[in-house]
Amino acid sequence: MLIRVFIAIEFEEQIKKYLWDIQQVLKENSIKGNFTNKDNFHLTLKFIGNVQINALETLKKSIDKVTKNGKSFALLFEKIGRFQREQKSIVWVGLKKNKILEALHDQLENILVKEGYPKEQRKFRPHITLGREVLFQSDFEKLQKIIEIKSQEIWVNKISLMESTRINGKLEYIPIYIKYFER
């Protein structure tokens, strides 16, 4: 049996609420879009994709390795941005450059490559997706000026292996393994 998974940093409820508030402004200024469910807001460290159930143990051990000597750290929101695909956009909130996050990502990537998972070809650009296939009513650059992103601190003390699944037609991200930093 196949299961669709990724490795992520999950957020506390107040961070999800903050992101949801930003998302509401985007919705009000959009013609249409596929907007992320509030409960699904997260920061992807590594998208894995479909794997056999027995592969989960290797993924859990990989997470254990990166959390063993790691310690909690803080991230800061930086800006709202988008990846443009024709006239539609993937809209996100980006994070300020963080050496600890980059090192964590690189370490995880290297461990997973040794386990046979392909290395991501794109540069790691940490972001939280707010919506996909978003079509705006007006110029996105104007909207960026309207939405003020606070440099709010996001405390990171764990990494999660997440399952991406549909339940009653609704996309849900379910933590199937959570590992806290050991120090």
Automatic annotation (TrEMBL):
Family: Belongs to the 2H phosphoesterase superfamily. ThpR family.
Domain of life: Bacteria
Reaction it catalyzes: a 3'-end 2',3'-cyclophospho-ribonucleotide-RNA + H2O = a 3'-end 2'-phospho-ribonucleotide-RNA + H(+)
Name this polypeptide is given: RNA 2',3'-cyclic phosphodiesterase
Keyword terms, alphabetized: Hydrolase
SUPFAM superfamilies listed in its UniProt record: LigT-like (SSF55144)
GO molecular function per UniProt: 2',3'-cyclic-nucleotide 3'-phosphodiesterase activity; RNA 2',3'-cyclic 3'-phosphodiesterase activity
Enzyme class at the top of the EC tree: hydrolase
Gene encoding the protein: thpR
Transmembrane intervals: none
Role noted for this protein: Hydrolyzes RNA 2',3'-cyclic phosphodiester to an RNA 2'-phosphomonoester.
Motif window: HXTX 2: 127-130
Organism: Crassaminicella thermophila
Pfam families per record: 2_5_RNA_ligase2
Catalytic residues (positions): H42 (proton donor), H127 (proton acceptor)
Signal peptide: none
Keyword Hydrolase set for record: yes
Keyword match Cytoplasm: no
The protein's Enzyme Commission number: 3.1.4.58
Residue ranges annotated as motif HXTX 1: 42-45
